[in-house]
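Hi R.,

Here's the chain you asked about this morning:
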Amino acid sequence: MRKPRDFDAELQALTDKARALKTKKQGQLGELVIATGADALSIEQLAGALLDAVGADKTRKEAWRKSGAALFRGGGPLTRKGARGIAGGAPADCAGEEPRPGEAGAA
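And the predicted structure, written out as tokens:
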């Protein structure tokens, strides 16, 4: 005869796993805020920037995605200019681009 399933234990295990995933996600979001330099903003400014980002058009969101991908590829923190571009909504045509050698701002 088969042993009956303990649905309560399975439900508790799933609840614990969901709680652990939520905690991990919150930690990663905090790390992202710090990595981008957005921790220098007030909580009200950060909330306002995020609300604007949610309602932004597809072109701006794509520019932000490219900037974010560049951050993760580079692995280092953003410069103040880069952090301002993400929080303030850099124009789609220049977001995430590095200055060419010989241009102003090139390292």
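The two ends are 73 Å apart (CA to CA).

Let me know if you need anything else.
M.
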